[in-house]
TrEMBL record:
HAMAP family: TatA_E. It comes from Desulfuribacillus stibiiarsenatis. Forms a complex with TatC. It is found in: Cell membrane. GO terms for cellular component: TAT protein transport complex. This is Sec-independent protein translocase protein TatA. Part of the twin-arginine translocation (Tat) system that transports large folded proteins containing a characteristic twin-arginine motif in their signal peptide across membranes. TatA could form the protein-conducting channel of the Tat system.
Length: 86
């Protein structure tokens, strides 16, 4: 939706903001919006990094689980063979 706003739409939004907030409050409002966007971007980046950091751990845990299953199965086969010999 926002990507469909062109230059005329942005100009209209700025004119409406100028009328509503006045020329004195507009720079203050711009700074507040800028800070908010910066914090949002930082939080989004941190969340993405956290998710990416967890991915290798999940892969390692999955591999360990698979190896454990294979080890248990191999031990069962070995036990079965040794019981057959006796």
């Amino acid at each position: 939706m926002i990507s469909n706003i062109g230059v005329p739409g942005l100009i209209l939004i700025l004119v409406i903001a100028l009328i509503v907030f006045g020329p004195n409050k507009l720079p203050e409002l711009g700074r507040a919006v800028g800070r908010t966007l910066k914090e949002f971007k930082s939080a989004t980046k941190d969340l993405t990094n956290d998710l990416n950091d967890d991915a290798p751990q999940k892969t390692v845990k999955k591999e360990i689980k698979e190896e454990t299953v294979l080890t248990v199965e191999a031990q069962e086969v070995t036990d079965a063979k040794s019981e057959q010999k006796h």
